[in-house]
Amino acid sequence: MKDVRQPLVEIVAPINVDRLAEAFKTFQEFKQRLLTKDDSVTIAGRQYLKKSAWRKWALACGVSDEIVSFDRVPAQGKDQDGSFAYRVVVRAFHEKSGRSSAGVAVASKKEKNNWSHEEHDIFTLAHTRAKNRAIADLVGGGEVSAEEMSSDMENRRIKDQNESPIPSAPGPASPGSASDLTNEQLNALKWTQSTKLPQLSTIKITQALLGIPIAKLLLERLKASANQTSKIGDITYKLSATDEGTEFLQRWQANRTTP
Length: 259
Known about the structure:
With 259 residues, this protein is α+β, with helices and mostly antiparallel strands. It has two domains: 34-152, 2-Layer Sandwich (Enolase-like, domain 1); 166-253, no CATH class. It has helices at 17-34, 51-61, 118-139, 146-163, 183-186, 207-210, 213-224, and strands at 40-43, 46-49, 64-74, 84-94, 99-108, 192-193, 200-204, 229-232, 235-241, 247-253. The protein has a five-stranded antiparallel β-sheet, with helices on one face. A three-stranded antiparallel β-sheet has the order 3-4-5. The protein has a two-stranded antiparallel ribbon with strand order 1-2. Strand 1 (40-43) and strand 2 form a beta hairpin. Helix 2 (51-61) crosses helix 3 (118-139).
């Protein structure tokens, strides 16, 4: 009688489970001990790691990366309004083990109203997303990075603001949402004019400042931005920090020539 039994199927087994558990435990410890508040952003109550966190983890694991390809894709059909997107493919690899992983990502001009350096910033965002994905997949992080969320951050924050308005506090009146911020409202904050750069004024970020809804909204918008920059009209707002970790809001007025 003919033997019709199916051949045995090889099962892909994991590495030693104890070693695997130890590796994931180390990843969690790494996040707690080596990452700072600047390496992550909180959205809707959940923490997302920024590119700086994934770069630190890549360094810790001895992971390298390279751009495999990139394309600039113009808008098609009825959306032909000058919009475009960059599609970037990045490969992360670990030479010692021979393992590698590819990350694919896209960033579009339509994700944001104002780009400081349009071509460069959109390409950089796509590259950052692809690189984060490749590193996360290779090291088994399996997490969505902060830059992955950036296209949804503004809409999400507007939705949250409309559903749960920030209570009033001393200082300028609170706008309806982050997208409603205007230079007129932000002028009410107590900016300190730079003595060396007439186009620059700053505010040190303190708990008192965060009690002012407009200042808090501006800070949230800057932290949500991939380059921590937001442009309103002809004024550019930035988030900066000293080597000691003290944070400042910056306001740049390109046409200002006198203090």
